[in-house]
């Protein structure tokens, strides 16, 4: 639990949603947390819902993605792997899950295209 993210997490879960509630028990206890740079987002004409949506779209039903508002002090995206919930008796994920998340992070950073320009792709 990251205290500075508590406000946007709480506001995300304020309105009940059956689809979200169904996925809660499938979420990994580990998460990827991306903090995006405001100036770069403005310069590239990107919004946080767009970036988070591209991540969610790229990984379809394998990730649960939530994000802060565009006007937040910090632009944050949380990504949790959805799976069978392989957790030990204390509710903690395994070490292998940590390694998997590091590999997933590299994949995201290198392959999630945000915009196509005439010269090249802009990656996350």
TrEMBL record:
InterPro entries: RNA_pol_Rpb1_7, RNA_pol_Rpb1_7_sf
Ranges where the RNA polymerase Rpb1 domain occurs: 1-115
Signal peptide (residue range): none
SUPFAM superfamilies: beta and beta-prime subunits of DNA dependent RNA-polymerase
Pfam family, any one: RNA_pol_Rpb1_7
A biological-process GO annotation: DNA-templated transcription
Gene Ontology molecular function terms on file: DNA binding; DNA-directed RNA polymerase activity
Protein's name according to its UniProt entry: RNA polymerase Rpb1 domain-containing protein
Organism: Rhizopogon vinicolor AM-OR11-026
